[in-house]
Amino acid sequence: MTHPIAALPMYDWPEVRAGTNAEWARIRDALRAAGIDAPETLTRETGDLYDFWRRPDILFAQTCWGPMGDGLAEYVHVVGQPDYSDVEGGDGELYRSVVLMRANNETPSSVAPPSVLPDISPAGGEIKHVIDLAIADGTMTRLISPLAGEMSGRTEGGNVGELPSQAVINLIRNKRFAYNVPDSMSGYLALQADLGSLDLFSEHIPTGGHRASIRAVASGRADVCAIDCRSWALAQRHEPAAANLVPVGWTTPRKGLPYITSRQTPPETVAIMRAALMDAGLIVA
Question: Do the beta carbons of residue 78 and residue 260 sit within 8 Å?
Answer without folding.
Answer: yes
